[in-house]
Amino acid sequence: MKKPAKVLIIIGDAAETLDTLYPYYRLIEGGYEPVVAGPEKRKFQMVMHEVKPGWTITKEWEGYTIDASIAFKDIKPEQYTGIFFSGGRAPEYIRDNEDLLNVTRWFFKNNKPIASVCHGCEVPARADCIRGRRMATVAKCKFDVTSCGGIYVNEPCVIDGNLVSGRTFHDHGAYMGAWMKLLDAERDQAKVRRK
Questions:
Q1: Is 156 exposed, middle or buried (0-12, 13-18, 19+ CB in 10 A)?
Q2: How confident is the model at residue 1 (pLDDT cuts 50, 70, 90)?
Q3: How many domains does the structure of the chain reveal?
Q4: 49 noted as active-site residue
Q5: Is position 68 within any domain?
Q6: CB–CB of 47/89 below 8 Å?
């Protein structure tokens, strides 16, 4: 039996639980092998984020844990069909990881399916990959997108070529299907190339 195509999910401590688990299980449902990647190969603590009524900032609760099966430094990007940048606070500190930045640049350069939600935009922004690209993110990350040359769009699903993005986990139902279609097309093309 042929192994399913692999797709990276980029996380770190304080990755948002729904931002991470919804794509993880959606990939399995779509016939892919989700591969969780972190700064190290270990267990990471996720969080839950929501702006509570009456609050002006995000409240954070401890969420589930998840195991990263590969460290950023060990990723061979050509082995993966696509990449997903999870949100939460994790992108604030993993965005300076040179190995992750190089992996990110590879996916953009090779026009592979890329998805991002919420703070996930901070990694491709830091990698200098979003200049002139339209991207959705949570409103407080508009500065990250525009400061790095991107075009902030306040919509639940933004498709700009191989880049699909959403604002928060509330948008999963809007943008995930579009990204899955890109992954399916990439997987089909890879099958044709192998023949």
A1: middle
A2: low
A3: 1
A4: no
A5: yes
A6: yes
For 41, which DSSP code? S
Does residue 30 form part of some domain? yes
CATH number of the domain encompassing residue 95: 3.40.50.880
Q: Mean pLDDT across the stretch 99-124?
A: 98
Edge-first strand order for the sheet with 163-166 is 70-71, 33-38, 6-10, 82-85, 114-117, 163-166, 158-160
**Could you tell me which residues come within 8 angstroms of residue 1 by beta carbon, excluding any fewer than 6 positions away?**
none
| 1 in any annotated domain | no
Whose structure tokens read 């990755």? 15
Which residue segment(s) compose the domain that 36 sits in? Answer: 6-194
Which among 49, 119, 170, 172 is annotated as catalytic?
119
What are the tokens at 3? Answer: 């192994």
In a domain, 179, yes or no: yes
Please write down the HEC assignment for all residues of 81-105: CEEEECCECHHHHHCCCHHHHHHHH
Task: Say what the pLDDT of residue 60 is.
Answer: 85
E strand map for 11-71:
33-38, 43-50, 59-67, 70-71
Of 60, 58, 64, 59, the residue nearest 36 (C-alpha): 64
Average pLDDT over the chain reads 95
Percent of the chain with pLDDT over 70: 99
Q: Which residue has the tokens 């990110």?
A: 104
